[in-house]
Design a protein that fits this description.
This protein is mainly α. Helices cover 54% and strands 6% of the residues. The strands form two sheets. A two-stranded antiparallel ribbon has the order 1-2. It has a two-stranded parallel ribbon with strand order 3-4. α6 packs across α8. The longest helix has 26 residues.
Length: 194
């Protein structure tokens, strides 16, 4: 009798967990902030005889329901991503690299620190010269132009890069050339990377 009762309790809990997304939709309850990304909200099309016969109402309603389910389902996505990371050390986000001590990097930060995304000196010189023209034009109008170089996670924590990146010395970086060219042209800038 006790074994049968424990199966019923387990079945009941499983059923409740499976129905949570449905309850959230029906109760219009948000489970955490919505997921971020390229999302276009579907606008609800009113039900009319014309929209029904033109076969526009049904696909539109499907889009609205799917969108609504995804918004309420965001907590489940976050939980699944956390389980994947904790249990299997896998990330579901694209271009994420797991570094030492579980530091997460977008591969762009690593590429920038190692100079793999280097634009070339002539391209950077051209860009800085244009910025200088804007600065000079605004100065004539009594305005102040200031460029800010933000610190990247890769330049702040290079010791946390995973192998093989941790052994790589890197080449010339965009950052180094930008700073050099900005100083040459007396461009107003703050270097938060430094």
């Amino acid at each position: 009798m006790g074994k049968q009762l424990s199966y019923k309790i387990l079945f009941g809990l499983s059923l409740i967990l499976l129905c949570l997304p449905l309850f959230n939709i029906l109760l219009k309850h948000e489970m955490g902030p919505p997921l971020k990304g390229a999302v276009q909200d579907a606008a609800g099309l009113p039900f009319t005889t014309q929209s029904w016969l033109a076969h526009k109402f049904q696909p539109n309603k499907d889009s609205v329901i799917t969108q609504d389910f995804r918004k309420h389902n965001s907590a489940i996505v976050r939980i699944k991503n956390q389980i994947d990371y904790t249990a299997f050390r896998e990330t579901q986000a694209q271009k994420i690299v797991i570094g030492k001590d579980d530091y997460l990097f977008e591969d762009g930060y690593i590429r920038a620190k190692l100079g793999r995304d280097y634009l070339g000196k002539s391209t950077i010189q051209w860009r800085v010269a244009r910025m200088k023209k804007v600065q000079d034009y605004l100065a004539q109008k009594g305005k102040y132009f200031l460029t800010i170089l933000a610190a990247g996670k890769g330049s702040y924590f290079p010791e946390k890069f995973p192998p093989p990146y941790d052994a790589e010395k890197g080449d010339t970086t965009n950052y180094e050339v930008y700073v050099d060219e900005m100083e040459k042209l007396n461009l107003n800038f703050i270097d938060f990377n430094d």
